[in-house]
């Protein structure tokens, strides 16, 4: 009986995934226009729910809080850390200050701060270190006036490296917090 369950579970899971994929709507063109009040509207008919949300977020990008002086810093969406550290560098403070300025000017913007580590250390230790890094960035943003409701700190530890190497250069790239806009990103054009 247990062997039957072991065979049935993968088949059932595959069927559910295939059913979910089959019910998704195909990609469609996204068309943006202007309302009489000046706000942007997006025609999302024919899009899946996720695609419609992404299209609305991109159309809802804001230039409020974006200056020529902070564009380069707003384009940077990653801050890096030294080994076993949660200290922010002076360069990273400038990047975070630009993002804080944008977030304060755009109360509808939402950001996920994802903490990452290099591969050294246990999974548990790295999850905690990734969280401390994300919280360090979150704390800085809050102290500069960003609403805590606009921020979410998440840790991935060593589970999502961007460089699969096993040397200091790879480890240096992987020790990071990513700034991921989930709603109303900066318009940098």
Give structural attributes.
single chain; 189 residues; alpha+beta; 60s Ribosomal Protein L30, Chain: A; 2 domains; 6 strands; 17% strand; cell outer membrane; palmitate; cell cycle; OmpA-like; OmpA-like_sf
Layout of SSEs?
Blueprint: H1 2-23, E1 31-34, E2 40-43, H2 49-59, H3 71-75, E3 78-80, H4 90-105, E4 110-116, H5 123-143, E5 151-157, H6 168-174, E6 176-183
Parallel strand pairs: 4-5
Antiparallel strand pairs: 1-2, 3-6, 4-6
Structural class: alpha+beta
Number of spatially distinct domains: 2
Strand order of the largest sheet: 3-6-4-5
Oligomerization status of the protein chains: single chain
Beta-strand level of the residues, as a percent range? 15-25%
The helix fraction, in percent, is 40-55%
The helix/strand order is HEEHHEHEHEHE
Largest sheet: 4 strands, mixed
What is the strand tally?
Answer: 6
Query: What does the overall shape look like?
Result: globular
Secondary-structure arrangement, i.e. CATH architecture of the largest domain: 2-Layer Sandwich
CATH topology of the largest domain: 60s Ribosomal Protein L30, Chain: A
CATH class of the largest domain: Alpha Beta
Could you tell me the mean pLDDT? 78
Determine the CATH superfamily of the largest domain. OmpA-like domain
Biased composition (Polar residues): 32-45
Protein name: Peptidoglycan-associated lipoprotein
InterPro entries: Bact_OuterMem_StrucFunc, OMP_bac, OmpA-like, OMPA-like_CS, OmpA-like_sf, Pal, Pal_lipo_C
Keywords: Cell cycle, Cell division, Cell outer membrane, Lipoprotein, Membrane, Palmitate, Signal
